Amino acid sequence: MISKKVEEAIVNQIKNEEHSSRIYMAMASWCETKGYRGAADFLYKQSDEERMHMLKFIKYLNDRGGYAILSALEVPASKYKSLLDVFKHVMSHEEFITDSINKLYEVALKEKDYTTGSFLQWYINEQIEEESTVHGILDKMNLVGEDKAGMFHIDKELETMAAAKVVAPIA
Ligand code: FEO
């Protein structure tokens, strides 16, 4: 049986993952209306991925004898200055998520819940991967700066990245 503290921390992380999914969906919608089709595809996929992250936590918590409940969520932002601005927000959000996963990991270890600790390894690795992907995108955007043709190419690249992204169903 999972401890109350770990249960509460996972419920909080379920909220964070669901919120991530909605933030990326809102960003995808913005990109779509601004003509950034590739970025929109990428962020819609990212939104699906976050939903899978949420679902993985829900199933895990219920399997361990806890109860995964959903929480009220903030309305995501709907206005961005530029595509660069969108991805800067993605970066800071992913950093926030990494931090929240690390805090959850600390709670699990404090509670001597090593099963949850080992379950969280998957998320820790996933965060390394996500942060590095977004860093790569931001580096390219910073290189092209205000150059519209450069941004167009990045958008095309995001389209390719989105097509290659497989949102794996939870095991
Ligand atoms: Fe589920 Fe991108 O954090």
Summarize the structure.
The chain has helices at residues 4-33, 37-63, 83-110, 114-144, 148-164.
Secondary structure blueprint with pairings:
Layout: H1 4-33, H2 37-63, H3 83-110, H4 114-144, H5 148-164
Structural notes for this entry:
The protein is mostly helical and 171 residues long. The protein has a single domain (4-164), classed as Up-down Bundle (Ferritin). The chain contains five helices and no strands. It has helices spanning 4-33, 37-63, 83-110, 114-144, 148-164. Helix 1 (4-33) packs antiparallel against helix 3 and helix 2 packs parallel to helix 5 (148-164). It is elongated, with a radius of gyration of 17 Å. The structure holds MU-OXO-diiron (FEO). MU-OXO-diiron binds next to helix 1, helix 2 and helix 3.
Our Rg estimate from Cα atoms comes to 17 Å
Distance between the termini: 21 Å
Instruction: Compute the number of structural domains.
Output: 1
Q: How many beta-strand elements? A: 0
Shape: elongated
User: What is the overall number of helices?
Assistant: 5
Bound compounds: MU-OXO-diiron
Q: Which series of helices and strands comes N to C?
A: HHHHH
Uncertain segments of ≥5 residues (pLDDT<50)? none
State the CATH superfamily name: Ferritin, core subunit, four-helix bundle
Q: Could you name the CATH topology? A: Ferritin
**Fraction of residues in β-strands:** under 5%
Average pLDDT value?
A: 96
Short key terms for the protein model shown above:
Ferritin; 78% helix; single chain; mainly alpha; binds MU-OXO-diiron; 171 residues
